[in-house]
Amino acid sequence: MMMTSRMTGFRIALALTCAISLAACSKKNPNGINAGLNGGSGSDLAAGAPAPGSVQEFQTAVGDRVFFQMDQVMLTADAQDTLRKQANWLSQYPDVQIQIEGHADERGTREYNLSLSARRATAVRNFLISEGIASRRISSIAYGKERPAALCDAEECWSQNRRAVTVITGGARTS
Amino acid sequence: MGMMLNRRKLITAVGAAPFAALAARSPAMALDVDVSGGKINPLPIAIAPFLAGSGSEEVSAEVAGVIANNLGRCGYFSPLPPESFIERISDFEAQPNMQSWRQVQAQALVTGQAYMDGGKLRVSFKLFDVNSGQVLASQSLAAGPKLSRRLAHRISDQIYQALTGFEGYFDTRIVYIDESGPKSQRIKKLAVMDQDGFNAHELPVQGDLLLTPRFSPTANEVTFLSFGTGVPRVYIYNIDTNQKEIVGDFQNMSFAPRFSPDGGRIIMSLQSDDGVNSNLFEMNLQSRQLRQVTNVAAINTAPCYSPDGAYLAFESDRGGNQQIYVMSAQGGEAQRITFGKGTYSTPVWSPDGKWIAFTKNANGKFAIGVMKPDGSGERILTEGYHNEGPTWAPNSRVIMFFRDSGGGENGGPHLFSVDVTGYNEQQVPTPEFSSDPAWSPKLN
Predict the structure, then answer these.
(1) Which of A89, B161, B318, B332 to pair with A26, CA 20 to 30 A apart?
(2) Domain spans in chain B, listed from the N-terminal domain onward
(3) Closest B-chain CA to A152
């Protein structure tokens, strides 16, 4: 029962995504009005999986973020694992452009955290390049402690905020 | 004897305090009558209701209120409740009855009057030594009627200076970051207010993530960090002309800006091409020449000039973690000055050159402290979950900083001020959450 309702919710969400892409599509290209519909009714939708090459697939099936130890920029084994998956996915979709967002937790001063988060973004960027992703596809930005993802006053949140997030900025498939 | 002795006592207390060990603060401390061990004994002062010309009743009461608020907040004075006053001043020129003011325990008395004088508001005041009846300070000032609070701040400065011997700091402003919206997407805008928290208003600078504003020495310009399209960069905003300009169009992130004491240069950090390090660079605002100041493979940031411009204090992790270093502003070797437990950051030189204020992170707490520029004499002024980013009042007696007490998604920072002795911590009221305060020099 639980499973069914979850699936239904997911389908509704996907249907909404399709509707949005259809609208976007028809605005840009009035002749391609069916493109969104065709993609949206594919077999992947029925199976509940995000479309291949989509932002959703990258976020859910690959993983868009890696985490760091306190005051560290070293990539952990887990982080390297995620980044290899990212590189693998990115090589399948060579049109995809990404921006690496570096972040720090709140337990530091503002200027230092900007610099620390820049180092983290650089560590991820360099790793992806070493995995064969062209440097021109990767930009980076340092957010310091300004954009926390988890909001509590404890290590369980701070550990989620010491992160680098790979954000797709262009070239992903929308359907 | 009498008032002169008390005056000297107050001055001695305040002057000696920075060198005294920081005593544990207790609620009883403010009630101590005797001055000892670096504690400050607030001087009882009566601010008589100011006389008002016809139609100036409201502004007259406002001026007296601003003065009482300033003197009370600074921690050196205890304004007495007007309800307790016996004498009602009815003639500004006549000598008050000192016996009646002694009776309400006042040691100093302020009288004043305000009236419209040819389109301008004229405010006059007299400061009396209650014991001798002598006038310690008096003046008559005039300005446009909208500047009533500034007149009150200037009078406060004169009273403060006459009684403490320190230069006043009330006619000053604070530039800071106004924070609103959800914590994960907080909107951070530049804002300016008077030092007492009044007249807070946002500066019309585009961008939703603006950080670390710092005044120019003339207080009409602010340098700050802006996130826009692309990497974060350093800008200067001119309050008078409403113009914004970029400080060098660098490919990499530029951040942590601060004006030189002569206002002609900006010192800041630039991220290196390899994205790993940050070094200090100085931009000459006239010639637009860029000079590299540090060249060390580390995070070198949060630079601040000494008031004479000869030295720089900054933080660096070149030794493994964040510590404060001092070097010649011309370049060369930097000397590490912090060796205590924990990390040290955000050094800010006091305007009199005698102290460096800093943020210290040790034992899971963030503290604000001061030390001499050679690293000796460290004193922690306040400590807690998170305190950061000190800035000095122009007289080097008061430090403002921001504090976040936690509170999860509903939490946020507020501004606080504290005497350089660690005494008299006060929240500075702001309309929203607030951070990154920077104190202006005295206004002209």
Answers:
(1) A89
(2) 3-164, 173-439
(3) B408
CATH superfamily of this structure's domain B173-439: TolB, C-terminal domain (2.120.10.30)
Rounded CA-CA distance B333/B127 in Å is 51
Q: What residue has token string 């609208």?
A: A23
Q: What percent of chain A has pLDDT over 70?
A: 73
Same-domain pairing of A96 and A70: yes
- The ipTM is 0.90
Report CB contact under 8 Å: A151, B345: no
Contact state of B299 with A140 under an 8 Å Cβ cutoff? no
**Domain harbouring A63, CATH code:** 3.30.1330.60
Q: With an 8 Å Cβ cutoff, is B184 touching chain A?
A: yes
pLDDT single digits (tens) A100-117: 999 999 999 999 999 999
Interface of A with B (CB under 8 A): 71, 106-112, 114-116, 118-119, 121-122, 125-126, 140-143, 146-149, 151-153
Buried b (16+ CB within 10 A) or exposed e, B88-100: ebeeeeeebebeb
Residue B83: pLDDT above 50?
A: yes
A-chain residues within 8 Å CB-CB of B227?
Answer: 143, 146
Find, among A53, A70, A49, A68, the residue nearest to A165 by Cα. A68
Q: What is the pTM of this model?
A: 0.87
Phi, psi of B265 (to 5 degrees): -140, 160
Residue B157 in contact with residue B166, Cβ under 8 Å? no
pLDDT tens readout for residues A20-49: 333 333 333 333 333 333 333 344 454 578
Residue B105 vs residues B80, B131, B229: alpha-carbon distances, Å: 8, 10, 62
Residues 330-359 of B with CB under 8 A from A: 345-346, 359
Tell me if A152 and B269 make a contact (CB, 8 A cut-off).
no
pLDDT tens-digit series, residues A131-166: 999 999 999 999 999 999 999 999 999 999 999 999
